[in-house]
Amino acid sequence: MGAAGVPARFILDSVSMSLSTASPTIVWFRDDLRIRDNAALAWAADRGPVIGLFIDEDQPRALGGAARWWRDRSLTLLVDALATHGVPLLRRSGDPVVLLTEVVRETGAAAVTWNRRYHGPLRERDAEIKTQLREQGLEVHSHAGFLLTEPWEVTSGAGTGYKVYTPFSKAAFPLADESAARLGDPMPAQLTGPDTPVADTGGIDAPDPFWAAEMATHCRPGEQAALDRLGDFLDRMRERGGYADGRDEMARAVTSGLSPHLRFGEISVHRVWEEITAAADAGDIDATDAQVFRKELLWRDFAWHRLYALPDMATTNVREQFNRFGWAWDEHEAARLVDGRHPLSPTSSDEFHVALAAWRAGRTGIPLVDAGMRELWATGSMHNRSRMVVASFLTKNLQIHWRHGEEWFWETLVDADPASNAFNWQWAAGSGDDASPYFRIFNPETQARKFDPDETYIRRWIPEYGTPEYPAPIVDLKESRREALDAYEAVK
């Protein structure tokens, strides 16, 4: 997918400002595009006038097209929300080490603050910036907020991070409870901008790229949308319950839909945890439903804790024995996912590229796999049960490297993040920490009978299903399963 353009109303590329009587504090927004429950913003507001800043910086990995589309629309909405408090949001592009110094000089700011990041290269960058700004005499603070628990807080008896989810969750659960219970007033007190407003450069929103037209009808970015989504989820749990048992049923609206909102910090994960906990404690929702959902929030933490320890998780097998596994791989394939040119047709006629293209396009002839992949292309999302099925099919039945699947999800998911995307693909492939055993191969036909018995989900996304236009299977499920297990035995 290509660049979604610059969201631009009120987002500033230059600044002309008279200093207010109190020096402002710069809040550097990253993956925390919200006002409520924002520790960095609350800290800045307590000091005096606030100036927001967003930097389009080089990342260890550039955002995929769908996630970039979501983020840019969320930024536009954040600009409007901050403007109601008189707080400007500046947008710059380049090296944050240089740009933060420039913005401090231009605005007369006396302090800079942000919410923490956890990927190694970005942690190092933030540490460098903090040191540099403090050497210039500025007050600099970073805050927790993106995760329920900090990676250095949840460690084993040996003092290292957990590699298995169950003991991790047992150790992390009380810490998550404690941190969520400390939530105070969600809105920062006395949130104001500088006395003299920053001039508005009057940017114009760019049109959506061609591939986003249908996706936009399914997606509603922004902080208010996140709050509404949480409210709807709680209402459904109160009225119908059944989350623990029904979350795998693909045709039902049982899951929360909060993942892209959490990905870009449009809602605090602590707020989500606390709202679910309070509803369960009050007897408004089923305690088992609440427990299962909170454990899934902790799975997100677990993925980030593993990325904290393994910064190359998106490109390197965690379990080294899988380096010998004979997955089909084309090192040039990811480079083709640029400028909106999604190769939904084969880039060559060899069997590997034909199969990979069929998988991407939802044309494998395996109905549940195809329904999931078409849902992804149309909406920028996919039901979690479908994600497991399509990942198992790619890495095991087709024996294509998990990195090709991870790269496609990175480009097409609105909720793709550096930790969960890589961690979950390695989990599905069997090559990661606490992974699904390689010999666990999801049978798409069995999964469909169990979780889509009326074929409602399949027919929703495959209009030609059951007609001559629907393709024949590209692989025999039983035979390909046997071949996958034989290949696994060879490297085990």
Automatic annotation (TrEMBL):
Annotated positions for site Electron transfer via tryptophanyl radical: 327, 402, 425
Sorted UniProt keywords: Chromophore, FAD, Flavoprotein, Lyase
Iron-sulfur is among the record's keywords: no
SUPFAM superfamilies: Cryptochrome/photolyase FAD-binding domain, Cryptochrome/photolyase, N-terminal domain
GO molecular function: deoxyribodipyrimidine photo-lyase activity; DNA binding; FAD binding
Family: Belongs to the DNA photolyase family.
Designated name of the protein: Deoxyribodipyrimidine photolyase
